[in-house]
Amino acid sequence: MAPTAHVYLVDNLDTDRIIPGKYTKTLDLSTLAAHVLEDIDPKFSGEVQPGDFLVAGNNFGCGSSREQAALALKAAGIAVVIAKSFARIFYRNAINIGLPVMEVDHNIQPGDSISVNLESGLVINYTKHETYHAAPLPPQMMNILREGGLVNYLLKYGDYV
Amino acid sequence: MKQTIAEKIISRHAGKSVKAGDVVIVRVDGVMATDATAPFAIKALRKMGGKRLWDSTRVSLVIDHASPAPNETVANLHKMMRDFALEMGCRLYDVGEGICHQVMVENGHVRPGDLFLGADSHSTTYGAINAFGIGVGSTDLAAAMLTGKTWLKVPKTIQIVLQGELRRGVTVKDVMLFLINKIGAEGAHYQAVEFTGETVRSLSLASRMVLANLSAEMGAKASLVDPSGLELWYPFEPVYPDPEAEYVRKLTFDVSSLRPQIAKPHSPENIVPIDEVLGTKIHYAFIGSCTNARLEDLHAAARVLNGKKIASDVRLIIAPASKNVLNEALQDGTIQILSAAGATFITSGCGPCVGSHLGIPGDGEVVISSANRNFRGRMGNPKAFVYLASPAVVAASALAGEIAEPD
After folding, report:
1. Same domain, B362 and B296
2. Nearest residue of A to residue B269, measured between CA atoms
3. Within 13 Å of residue B263, how many CA atoms lie on the same side as its CB?
4. What's the rounded Cα separation, in Å, for the pair A92 and A103?
5. DSSP string spanning A88-132?
6. Which strands make up the sheet holding B115-119, listed edge to edge?
7. Which residues of A touch B267 (CB under 8 A)?
C-alpha cells in the first residue's frame, strides 16, 4: 500500500502540540509515539503507518526546543515531514536525529496522493498533477543527514569538519 | 566590513570575519541543558562515544522543568543528570535553584560577548547581557558538550528601535506582546533581532531579559539588546554594532501611548489591548517562568496586592525565577505581602508554564499568566484557556477575579 500523507495545514504548529510537555520527560520512544499530535488529532497515533508522510503549513515545529517532537514523529513511523517552512530548532533537531524534512511550497490537501524523492528533493502530487521542489539543505546539514544524523556523523569524523 | 552585534560575536568565535549568510563552525563559551533536554543529550553523547566533556567547567545542567520530580520516571531522569554531573565533573543546579536562564545569568556562566548554547528555546534571553544565545535540541547540545563547537548560519538582523517613555502600569512585557503581534510568530524566522533606542537604554537587567526572552516568540534565532546602560556586577567590554551595519529591516516604534497588552488563547501572537478583554472571568493566576518571575516582577505584583486579598474564587500561584530571587523577596518583605494577599508559592523553576507537573488548569478554566506561551495544551490541559499578560496585570486580575488593569 502506498504511504499515506497526513495533512495538517495549520501554520505555526508548535512542538507543544506535536508532543505535549507532560509526555516529554521520558527516554521511552514508544511513549512519545503514543501521544504524538494527540491534542490536534487524537486518532493520528493509531492510524499512522511506518513510511507515511506528514504534511504541514508554515513555521512547523515552532516553540519549545524539545527534540522529543522530532523523535516522536520518527518513532511513530513518519518517513519525511513536508512543510511550507520550518521553525529553526525543529529543522536542526530533525536532521540531527535522521528524520528527513523537506521545505516545499506545496498545495497538498488532505486526501491527496503524493510521492517523495529525498535524493532529488521532488514531491509529486498525483491528485493535483503538480510537482514541488524542496529547498536544498545547506551542505553542513546534507553531510549530517547523509550519515543518518549527528551521532553517526561525530562517530565517523570525531569533530565538525 | 561593518557588522551587526551577531556578526561581531560570531566572527570572534569562528576565527574569521563573517557576514550574514555564511555557514561557519564556531567554538562555544558554554552550554546548558535542563531536565527536559539533558536526558536525551546524555544519551546522544554516550552514543557519540563521549567519555568526557570538552570542558566540564563550561557545562551546566539545571533541574527546573519538572522540579521537584512529580513521579518515579522523572525522578530517575533527575538522578541520571546528577550521576552524569558527578561522573563528568560538570555543574548541576538541583531542585529549587531556579530557572535555567536566570541561573546562568545570575551566576555569570554566560557573559557579554559570549556565544552560548542552551538546550531550551528561550536561550535568546542571553542577549539581554550582550551575549549571542541560541536554543538547540538535545543532539546539537551533546555534540557541543563533546567538541566545544557547533555549526551555524550567520543570521541577518532586524533592528528594532524603541522610543518614548512607557506609561505607568505598562511594562516591556506589553511592548513585546505588541511587537510579537506586529512582527508575527515567524516574523524573525532564522534572523537575529537587535533592540536599541532611548526606551531600551534605560531598562533594568530584568526588563532587558524580557525583551530578549520573548524574541523567541517571533521565531528569532538570537536577540541582542543594546548594551548601553547595561549594569552588571562585574566588569565587561560591551559589543556594539557598527553604525553602518547592514540590517534586513529597521523598525521604529513609539511606545509612549501603548496600553497593557494581552495574548488571548491559543497563540502568543493573538494580541489585543487589555481594553478588549477587561472583565473576562478568570479562575487561576500564575506569576512565573523565564519571562516574568524576577524581583521587579514580584515587586510589581506586590504593589498591586499590598494590604489586599485576592478574589475568593481565584488561586494565585507564584514560582520565583530562582532561589536568589526568592531570598531577596523574602528579605525585602515582598513574599510576606504576596502571601498575606493569598498567593501560593511553589518551587523556583518553570512550574506551570510547561504543564509538566504542578498547577495544571481544569477543563474550561481560564488562566492569566505572566509566562511566554499559551499554545493549546501548553499548561497541561488542551481544554483550558490561557491569557498572557504582565505580572502587574496578572496580580490585578487575581484581585478582581477577572481580567483587570492595575490602578
Report:
1. yes
2. A12
3. 32
4. 13
5. HHHHHHHHHHT--EEE------TT--EEEETTTTEEEETTTTEEE
6. B91-93, B59-62, B30-34, B115-119, B132-135
7. 12
B226 lies within 8 A of chain A by CB: no
Which residues of chain B have a CB within 8 Å of the CB of A136?
A: none
On whether any CB of chain A is under 8 Å from the CB of B34, the answer is no
pLDDT in tens, chain B (407 residues): 899 999 999 999 999 999 999 999 999 999 999 999 999 999 999 999 999 999 999 999 999 999 999 999 999 999 999 999 999 999 999 999 999 999 999 999 999 999 999 999 999 999 999 999 999 999 999 999 999 999 999 999 999 999 999 999 999 999 999 999 999 999 999 999 999 999 999 999 999 999 999 999 999 999 999 999 999 999 999 999 999 999 999 999 999 999 999 999 999 999 999 999 999 999 999 999 999 999 999 999 999 999 999 999 999 999 999 999 999 999 999 999 999 999 999 999 999 999 988 999 999 999 999 999 999 999 999 999 999 999 999 999 999 999 999 98
CB atoms B373 and A14 under 8 Å: yes
Q: Please check whether residues B208 and B127 belong to one and the same domain.
A: no
Decide if A62 and B40 are in contact by the 8 Å CB cutoff: no
Residue B237 belongs to a domain with what CATH number?
3.30.499.10
Q: Could B186 and A12 be called an inter-chain contact, meaning their C-beta atoms sit closer than 8 Å?
A: yes
Q: Which of B53, B73, B121, B146 is best to mutate for the A interface (most A CBs within 10 A)?
A: B121
* Domain end call among B109, B127, B151: B151
Asked if the Cβ–Cβ distance from A62 to B151 is below 8 Å, we say no
User: Would you call A89 and B136 a contact, using CB atoms and an 8 Å cutoff?
Assistant: yes
Whether residues B237 and B125 share a domain: the answer is no
Query: Number of folded domains in chain B?
Result: 3
ipTM score of complex: 0.94
Identify the domain boundary among B151, B169, B193. B151
pLDDT in tens, A77-120: 999 999 999 999 999 999 999 999 999 999 999 999 999 998 88
Cell of B92: 548541576
* Residue in B137, B189, B376 closest to A65 by CB: B137
Q: Does B279 touch chain A (CB under 8 A)?
A: no
> Which H helix or E strand runs over B73?
helix B72-88
Topology given in CATH for the domain delimited by A5-136: Aconitase; domain 4 (3.20.19)
The one-letter amino acid at B53 = L
B22 and B114 in a single domain? The answer is yes
Nearest CB partner across the interface for B48, out of A67, A87, A154: A154
Structural domain for B105, as ranges: 5-151
Interface test with B, best of A32, A59, A88, A144 (most B CBs within 10 A): A88
DSSP H or E stretch at residue A77: none
Specify the pairing of strand A122-125 against strand A130-133.
antiparallel
Cβ neighbours of A87 in B, within 8 Å:
186, 189, 219
The reply to whether B62 falls in a domain is: yes
Give the residue from A144, A67, A41, A46 showing the smallest Cα distance to A100: A144
